[in-house]
């Protein structure tokens, strides 16, 4: 069925997140206690809450979005182009600019959002951070009352599972087995905290996020049986 979808109706995306503060000590006492309770299962007795804090970015309650990269297809006759751009900086600004993109260009019933593991991570994370900042959810992220087949989201991880919910396949592994150029040629997700807070290199993170977005689109093409994008078909704007 995905072969029948119009590629121009899909917004591909990826997000990068970090803990809301650089150091655990910057949290107030209540938030420190909440983090201790929230992370207890994952860290067990191997780490203290402070030692484990650099991983806090995976939870929307303790993290923040520092970059959203998006990509979309555009066809000019027989010429196929994939345009990629990013929103970064202040989180509220990122979220409002992303929401404006959805409302102005991807708000119709035919439009879909697509990410790798997006249904478990990217889409709910963006929605939660919007609510935290009192930003009204755009229709494409407001799932309340929607039936499963009404949710306008595609997930390349879910598509790859083919109904098998016992496994998780990373973006890096899936690009490898499908012969897609790897986006992990510089940093990976575990290094984003260090690159952001210690090196202050947001450009490096933007590049990483955009490569992941391109990889999601490439995987989607492979799942459809389409040709992969060539470098000259990808435009960063």
UniProtKB/TrEMBL annotation:
Coiled coil: none
Residues of the Predicted 3'-5' exonuclease PolB-like domain: 62-224
Cited InterPro entries: 3'-5'_exonuclease_PolB-like, RNaseH-like_sf, RNaseH_sf
Pfam families referenced in this protein's UniProt entry, alphabetically: DNA_pol_B_exo2 (PF10108)
Keywords recorded for this protein, A-Z: Exonuclease, Hydrolase, Nuclease
GO molecular function list: exonuclease activity
Keyword Glycoprotein: no
Enzyme Commission identifier(s): 3.1.-.-
Nuclease among keywords: yes
Highest taxon listed in the record's lineage: Bacteria
Protein's recorded name: 3'-5' exonuclease
